[in-house]
Amino acid sequence: MSETFTSVSQEEAGFRERVRLSFDLDVDICVVGAGLAGLTIALEAARMGASIAVLEGRHVGWNASGNQLGTVMPGFSLPLADLIERIGFEDARELWALSKEGAEFVRAKATEETMPGIAPSDGALEVSNVDAGDRLISRLQMLHEDFDTEVEGWQVDRVREALKTDRYFHGVYYPKAFQVDGRKYIHGLAAMARRAGARIFEDTPVVSIDHSGIRKRIITPSARLRASHVVLSGNVHLGAPLRRLSATLLPVWRYAGITAPLGERLHEVIAFNGSIMDSDRVDHFRIVDGDRLMWASPETTWAARPQRFAGAIKRRMRSIFPTLGDVEIAEVFGGVSGQTVHGMPQIGQLRKGLWVASGFGRQGMNTSAMAGQLIARGILWGDERWRLFSPFELVWAGGVTGRAAGHLIGVWSRASSAAAGSLARYRERLRAKDREREARLAEANRAAGTGRRRPPPSQVRPVRPAPPPEPAYEGERVPEEQGVSQ
Ligand SMILES: Cc1cc2nc3c(=O)[nH]c(=O)nc-3n(C[C@H](O)[C@H](O)[C@H](O)COP(=O)(O)OP(=O)(O)OC[C@H]3O[C@@H](n4cnc5c(N)ncnc54)[C@H](O)[C@@H]3O)c2cc1C
User: Fold this and answer.
1) Which candidate, 334, 112, 359, places its Cα nearest to that of 232?
2) What is the dihedral of CA 208, 394, 96, 413, to 10 degrees?
3) What is the 3-state secondary structure (H, E, C) of 236-273?
């Protein structure tokens, strides 16, 4: 079993010999980190004519950016309702529009001739774990009318036609969302940035930054760099250059697997080609390479080898789609995302010439693209729209205690999501039984030539739901020392 996610040849993915920074250099902008955020900033700023150096401690796309599912949606990790509550309707609308621009940026780059073979495909479906038809309608109205986003509501029957499982109820279909091969995208972005003139140095960790003067001094193990602007886009690994910034991110590792080819049986259970995610964001999956299933689910707040999660991913697939049967997991991969306390990315200027772009959480494709555009335009054109992110200050994520709390919250929210799902399915079965009983009674009355007799109102008793059955998978615990919140 491979632990990486690539069916892509090195050449196709844009790999090339790594270049280290081994000489002193002066540039306009120094970008720390060659993930989605850093490379988008580098590409945008280089195309605007600035001289750029990207310093990457490992290699392009080493972490989350090169190990993700490639789904591109509008919005943020923070649910829209919470965003409105936090900053008000008008500002939420502006931020949402920016997040859509971020998604369009990715589409534009992915369809440029210079980024071949990344196979964009359209459509994403968010399915509800609970029977929440009313909430769905008001959400659809809001997205469509107030947030100018194309969406379609799917009734339970339609969802279950597309996905052969009783786990999901209603769905929200985003026809304009899309997905790309995430690994090819990040290497394509690097290739574009290089072509635009940005210099990318790998195996070059930034060990300290003196940001006090007009020209900032950036120190690496074998060379120094001077720049008017420094952009910190190192996610949770930034470390020494600004420890206080890393401390505002809760690291959450997420793991994903891809099955071996499954043939026709996969299409019998999943008749939908785009990305699918549940409303609690526990599972996220789609069909790749024609008949393989790519699935992300387990999370930890401590680093662990992705390979350990092959079994958990397989069980998760089976618990949602029992008729799929036994599957072989051919590849496992994962990465760590930085989650902020408020759930929104950190985008802006910390002090003159010192910028930050991090904290993209589980939704980094469109949001990092948006950050790249905002920061490049902020530096070079004086565009101040990055200030829309000012309400989301840098909040300490709680250190080790924060990670332990994050782990517990993860366990709790997955368990409560599972319990809500079980209850919804239990109620659904109860309703089906009621309908069956009524039909049998009507049939018996018809045969006996009698009408339906109702008990007097005083005898009508409300039906009380029994406690839901124990969840099959969600209750499973991985040993504590692995720190798994599944
Ligand atoms: C399994 C999984 C699936 C996902 N699926 C999706 C999806 O389908 N859609 C979506 O929108 N999002 C998805 N995400 C989230 C998305 O991948 C992240 O939000 C995004 O990649 C974060 O990008 P980044 O540039 O901030 O960070 P990173 O990818 O972590 O890049 C930061 C880079 O900075 C470098 N660095 C750090 N410190 C230093 C230093 N001091 N000196 C030099 N270099 C440094 C690191 O080596 C790293 O390469 C997924 C994440 C995971 C883990």
Assistant:
1) 359
2) 110
3) HHCCHHHHHHHCCCEEEEEEEEEECCCCHHHHHHECCC
Query: Rounded to the nearest whole angstrom, what is the distance from the C-alpha of residue 391 to the centroid of ligand 1?
Result: 23
CA end-to-end span of the chain: 22
Q: Supply the Cα-derived Rg of the chain in whole angstroms.
A: 25
Q: What is the pLDDT of residue 470?
A: 36
Half-sphere exposure of 425 (CA within 13 A, CB side): 17
- pLDDT computed for residue 15 by the predictor: 56
pTM (two decimals): 0.84
**Residues of the chain under the 70 pLDDT cut:** 1-16, 394-420, 422-423, 426, 441, 444-445, 449-486
Q: Beta strands 121-127 and 216-219: pairing type?
A: unpaired
Q: Which structure tokens are listed for 50?
A: 């600035």
Each residue's pLDDT tens digit, 239-254: 988 888 888 899 999 9
> Ligand 1: which residues within 6 Å by Cβ?
32-38, 55-58, 62-65, 67-71, 205-206, 233-235, 237-239, 241, 254, 256, 296, 334-335, 337, 358, 360-365, 368
HSE (side-chain half, CA atoms, 13 Å) at 338: 31
Look up residue 48 and give its DSSP letter: T
CB-based burial of residue 107 (10 Å sphere; 0-12 exposed, 13-18 middle, 19+ buried)? middle
Question: How confident is the model over 91-137, as pLDDT tens digits?
Answer: 999 999 999 999 999 999 999 877 877 888 999 999 999 988 777 87
